[in-house]
Every structure is written in C-alpha cells, then in structure tokens.
Design goal:
InterPro entries: 6-blade_b-propeller_TolB-like. The protein is mainly beta. The chain contains four helices and 25 strands. The radius of gyration is 20 Å and the shape is globular.
Length: 375
Amino acid sequence: MKTIHTISIALFISLLFSCGHSPQEPASPLTCDIDSISRAAEALVDSIRYLPLELTDSSLIGSIDKIICLNDKFYIYDQSFHKGVLTFDKSGHFLQALHPLGQGPGEYLHPVDFDVDSEGNIYIADNERQRILKYEKGNPKAYEEIATGRYFLNFALTEEGNFLLGDVYDQGRLADKLAVYNPRTQTYETLLQPAQPEVNEMKILKTVSHYLFKSGRKTYYYHRFTPHVYQPERKEPFATFLSSRYYTAESLKELEGKSAAFLTDTKHIKDINGFYEISQGYVCSILSSYLPDFYYIPRKGNGIQRFGLEREKRLLGNVMLKGVTDRALIFTASYTDANAQKAAGLTGLSADERKIFSQWNADSNPILILVYLKP
C-alpha cells in the first residue's frame, strides 16, 4: 500500500472546550496490529445516560450529522432539514438555531460542515461559494465571510485562526486530503495528499461525512485508505492501526462508482469513521462489516482492547459514533417503531428513563445516548 505523507508545518490545534479536558499525551505514537486483537471478554461499558432533545417550533431535527460538545452545550449539525446548527444545553433544552440559508449577505447555499470556537462563535462552510461564514455567538446578523478559494468537504478551526480543510477537490477529483488555509495572509498549504492518487476517491462511497474528529481541545484526522490517524500539528501519525485488510489501489479502482459493491464488501476496512479522545483514553471506530468495531486504548491498563457495541441493547441498535463529551461517547437514536419496541423491551431502567421512553413518539426529536466507559 502506497501512503504519501506531506505534513510540512507545525500547527497547534487547541479549541478550549469547557466540557473538554487536557490529559497528558502519550510519549510515543500509538501503534497496534488490530488483526491480532480479540474482543474483550469483559464489558467495557460502565453506564449509559439518555438525553432527550427538547422539541419546539424552531428545534425540529431532521438528522444529526455531527455533534460538538463545548461550554456545556451540544452543537448539533443537521444537514438534511435545518441545513444548519442547533444548540442545546447540557440538559437537552433548546437554546438556538442557526440556518441562514439563501443567497443574500450572511447566508449560505450549500453547507457542508461546521465548527465552534471557545467563545461560542459558529463557523459554517458554504461549499457553493468556497467560503466559511463566522457567526458571532451564533447570531445570523453578526457575521464575517472568509473566502478560501477552494472546494472542500470538511474543515476545522485552529487556535491560531487558520482553517484545516479536508477533502479539497477540483474538477471532480481530490486535489488534497488535508490542507491549511491562513485567512490573514490568504495562503494555502498542503498537509496530506491522497494515499492512492490514481484512484478517484470522489467516486467511492463514504461511511462518514467528515474525517476531522473533534474531542475536547483536540482535533484528529483520519487519512482515508491508510492505517494512520493524525493530530495535524504533528509531522508523524498519532496512531497507526495495522491490518492486512486495507484496500489496494487496484481493488479501489474496481469500486469506483459501485456503491452497492462497496457496502456489501466485508473483507476490507472501509473506514476509520471515528477517532476520539476522552478522559479515560482513546476510542477508535473501524468499519469493515455492516457495523463498526470499537477499539479502546486506556491511559492506564492493558493496552488496546477491541469491543463491540452491537450487543449493547441500551443503544437500541444505533452504533454510529457522532461525537464525545470529556467522558462519554455520543450516539443518537431517532424515533421509529423498531426503536420504540427495543426501548420497551429494556430492563433495569430507572423511573426517569421509563418516563423518557413513554413520552417518545414520531414527533419527538432524537435522543442522545451517552455511553460512559469503565475507568
């Protein structure tokens, strides 16, 4: 497998999350052979909390595509219905909606990703116009337009006020996997190029909408079709998950434009569709079959552990990781008849949890499911 590393500058990414943390970093990169790791015999889940999101006339959610936890708030990106960002407090109460869709000043046409800074300013990328809009504390009338001159699919803000741009493309093909844009000097620099330049990644299905994963004060980036996860300020990979199951260039070429064949393939690793840091350690979600496997690297203890969540009935079958708090993994569940039946079959629920599910119906917003791992 051919992997190209072109990180050439040092960036320091530190978004100050009040619900984040500042744990010590490992002394050396994390490296493991995941093919040799059996599933942990013991259950790693310590507890699970259900958090319903308040429904008002302004807070109806179509889908939850991304969650950032910051300043004791949940910022939720809904790309299907609102096409914007909804904000809820730590108890799930609705605070604010930001979705200025349109062609006028301060509006956007095609939002693809968002970020939040430590002051609560919200940034939304408008791919149609190659720009990022900054909304002061989520106020649609207090905005700044930042032209990037590039088409890209995901981004993250650095503490220095630069922007990491992921999946930068030109004329239907990927130009760079990861780059940094400085809006003050209007300069652009490549950090990572595609691992398989002969393959048109734009024609291969993605299992996640973004590869820049935000956890507390850290940003992690997965270089697709490689074993490597980066903190973009480092020159070397932060974590490497070795396996014989990554795609070759030849096998990827055969999958261009063939979404069904990609989805049904269970022999290869399709994606690392989540790498997050919590206070207890690191969690990586790797998808090769229909459901992801999770790998947990505790700060203390017996190294990396593989665990499955598909058997955890309290998740109601929803195992796609959407974000983290400082201590918990965030999953979501929307109301469906199937999910309601699974909830009705749960045992050992508290009175408050039974009340949550008794009031859950087709008009409800999704429920956040916070999964806490054992120390």
